[in-house]
């Protein structure tokens, strides 16, 4: 009976920490895409990636290094007319986000986050229309107590059905 109760407590605490990890990385995901698409928060982006970050994209190729990746977003943002609505929106597909913890000898050191998102773009009439839908996978690592993305994959891009 005591062993069963201890097992139940471990199971419940494991679920709690799994849910906490899920919620933490879901918030980080929102922060990432808000900074990249909505606010052009370059300073925020610098806090979200490791120095040796790698971004693998099935249409635009490989970007190596945090500075190269954040620099490309900063360049796109610098040319944006702030008087107009944001030119693109990223929308996480509800229910698609999954998070899997990574352990080394029982110690949490990272996580894999996977999901599906779609994009909308402003057309000539300044109205949003559907763009690509794609899958993404982030490899997060704990670095000095802070979650950072080490690897990002964006793949299976294809047009959404209208």
Automatic annotation (TrEMBL):
InterPro entries for this protein: DUF4440 (IPR027843), NTF2-like_dom_sf (IPR032710)
Residues in coiled coil: none
TM spans (from-to): none
Domain (DUF4440) ranges: 34-149
Pfam families, A to Z: DUF4440
Name this protein carries in UniProt: Beta-lactamase
Natural source organism: Croceitalea dokdonensis DOKDO 023
């Amino acid at each position: 009976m005591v062993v069963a109760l201890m097992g139940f407590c471990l199971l419940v605490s494991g679920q709690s920490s799994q849910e906490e990890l899920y919620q933490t990385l879901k918030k980080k995901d929102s922060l990432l895409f808000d900074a990249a698409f909505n606010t052009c928060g370059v300073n925020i982006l610098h806090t979200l990636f490791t120095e040796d970050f790698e971004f693998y994209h099935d249409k635009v190729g490989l970007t190596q290094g945090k500075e190269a990746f954040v620099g490309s977003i900063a360049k796109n943002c610098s040319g944006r007319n702030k008087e107009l609505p944001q030119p693109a929106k990223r929308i996480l597909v509800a229910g698609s986000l999954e998070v899997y913890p990574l352990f080394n000898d029982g110690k949490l050191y990272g996580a894999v986050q996977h999901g599906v998102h779609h994009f909308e773009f402003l057309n000539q009439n300044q109205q949003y229309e559907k763009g690509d839908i794609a899958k993404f996978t982030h490899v997060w690592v704990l670095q000095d107590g802070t979650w950072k993305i080490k690897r990002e994959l964006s793949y299976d891009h294809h047009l959404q059905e209208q």
